[in-house]
Automatic annotation (TrEMBL):
It comes from Streptomyces sulfonofaciens. Belongs to the ABC transporter superfamily. Residues 45-292 form the ABC transporter domain. Pfam families: ABC_tran, oligo_HPY. This is Peptide ABC transporter ATP-binding protein. Residues 12-43 have a biased composition (Low complexity). One of its GO terms (molecular function) is ATP hydrolysis activity. Signal peptide: none annotated.
Length: 369
């Protein structure tokens, strides 16, 4: 298992959410300054029936990295995409950014299908920005902080609502928590702490005034002492700017502290989704239960999953989790009368609406019983 406990001083599932970390019913500003509740407005970004397949090597079967995903992200909403390494979450995120065209299905932004022509993608990436997990690797060591933040402005040839480049860079650095911004203009990455470097990366995304950011493990490489600061910054940006975010992580403690909604991914497909408090305090899918059980603060016994996730080129029949499922192994699925379905019937793809949903024969049988 690759799931770690909650980082640093972050709270774990089951504890009250930190101040300033609104739950899924909190009112958040929309992109034009309006307010609304995540789930009550039209999606900003949407994936429908998304499949991403990579050719197999040396005649092997193709790898189904993303194997049927529906996912909506609404203005001002923070969605955490969680799962083990290799489950397909980074490939899904890259496809939502337009970096990996889907094999089937489509991505829409603001109601319009994503256009993969070069000029259209350039315009799209101004509205949707990526924040990577390793700020050191994201920053050119030969570029000053000013040049690193200004790079996006120069690529797109625009300073947005600002009169000049310097004003736009200063505003982005200040919003990212580097104040006074002029103090950082001529510094180089090696002169900054890890937390400061990550703030520079965030400023480089903010300078283009995006509507959504995709943050791939945004605090994984940081010391525990600064992880909470970066997560608090992302929440502040959501509240001040109406910024939506997809946060890709294996860390359920992080998801608890920052997300309105969580989507749990296993072997290329979302297997459980819903409001973060509901999913992480009352998980329905055995895989979600196993991920949560390894947190230090979890109640009950740790669930030890057998084996590794199957090869995405050889996805098993039936429920894709059944070969590792503790519920099936314990006989509980047999007693519920769904063991054969677990082995032979593929659960339906969950829709992207954000409602509480689970792709599990046993969990559905329990809810109907």
């Amino acid at each position: 298992m690759t799931t770690s406990g909650s980082p640093g001083s972050l709270e774990a599932p089951g504890a009250p959410k930190a101040a300033g970390a609104p739950g899924p019913a909190a009112a958040v500003p929309g992109p034009e300054g309006s307010t609304g509740t995540p789930g009550s407005t039209a999606p900003l970004l949407s994936a429908a029936g998304l499949h991403i397949t990579f050719p197999g090597r040396h005649g092997a079967a193709p790898a189904r990295a993303v194997d049927g995903v529906d996912l909506d992200i609404r203005p001002g909403e923070i969605v955490a995409l969680v799962g083990e390494s290799g489950c397909g979450k980074t490939t899904l995120a890259r496809s939502l950014l337009g970096l990996v065209p889907p094999t089937a299905g489509r991505v829409t932004f603001g109601g319009a299908p994503l256009d993969y022509a070069t000029a259209a993608l350039k315009a799209y990436r101004k509205r949707v920005q990526l924040v990577l997990q390793d700020p050191t690797g994201s920053l050119n060591p030969r570029h000053t902080v000013y040049d690193a933040v200004a790079e996006g402005l120069r690529i797109h040839g625009s300073t947005g609502r600002f009169a000049d480049e310097g004003a736009a860079v200063a505003d982005a650095l200040a919003r990212a928590g580097l104040r006074p911004p002029e103090r950082f203009f001529l510094r180089y990455p090696h002169e900054l702490s890890g937390g400061q470097r990550q703030r520079v990366v965030i400023a480089g995304a903010l300078v283009l005034e995006p509507e959504l950011i995709v943050a791939d493990e945004p605090v994984a490489s940081l010391d525990a002492s600064v992880r909470g600061e970066i997560l608090a910054l992302l929440l502040k940006l959501r509240d001040e700017l109406g910024l939506a975010a997809l946060v890709v992580t294996h860390d359920l403690g992080l998801a608890w502290n920052i997300a309105d909604r969580v989507a749990v991914m296993y072997l290329g497909r979302i297997v459980e989704t819903g409001p973060v408090e509901q999913v992480l305090t009352a998980p329905r899918h055995p895989y979600t239960q196993a991920l949560l059980s390894v947190l230090p603060e979890a109640d009950g016994e740790e669930v030890v999953l057998t084996g590794e996730p199957p090869d995405p080129s050889r996805i098993p029949s039936g429920c894709r989790f059944h070969a590792r499922c503790q519920v099936l192994a314990s006989g509980a699925a047999e007693r519920a009368g769904v063991a054969e379905a677990c082995r032979t019937q593929d659960p339906s793809v969950l829709d992207g609406s954000g409602a509480s949903q689970v792709a599990c024969h046993w969990a559905l049988a329990r809810s109907e019983g």
